[in-house]
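User: Please predict the structure of the protein below. I'd like the answer in structure-token form so I can feed it into my own downstream comparison script.

Assistant: Understood. Taking the following sequence of 217 residues as input:
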Amino acid sequence: MTRKRILVIEDDDLQYEIYEEALSDYDLTRAKTGSAALTCVSKQRPDVILLDHVLARGELGLEFLPELKELLPYVPIIVVSGALEVQQQIEALQGPRRAHYCLPKPIDLDELRRTIQIAIEQCGESEVVRQFEALERSKRVDVEELLSRSTDRLSRQTEIRRLLADTQGRPNISSLARQFKVARRTIIRDLQELIRRGEVPPEIYPKWESSEENGLD
């Protein structure tokens, strides 16, 4: 099985050595600045990014977050820093170009390993696939509901047409609404559709009848 690749954007040598030991099950690549990280990701796509905030040459990791997400929109980014205020952490986790997680330093290595595993299994491309699946399910539900409503409407109109064939004069709209347990305006629309399709004569629902009388707002 191919080992997952982690890009570690970290300028502190000791911290990187800690990562090397704790994350020995992964292939690690290191960048000491955000600028170097952008070059790295253009050559090889990582599966996860660990991003420190205070980097070499005075660069700040969060300032590179939008560019990293622009280049790698489906790669989960874990911000690991002891230099962030609470508000900065919140901002890093918000918006379309956000980090997936924000962990404080000194880092709990067990928590880091768990977070990386969750990010690989549930974020990134897997997250996109789940979103598409949810969208497809939503579409199917909408289609099924529309089909059900359409079937109910046609069935109701067929029954209305049968009832009208057995009666003389104009139909009692309120009575039909109670019988079919729908609003008066629904019955009126049914009658209008039946007339348009030529299934009942126009005299059934005269054009001169006011909308107020028929309960239309």
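That's the full token string. The longest helix spans residues 125-165.
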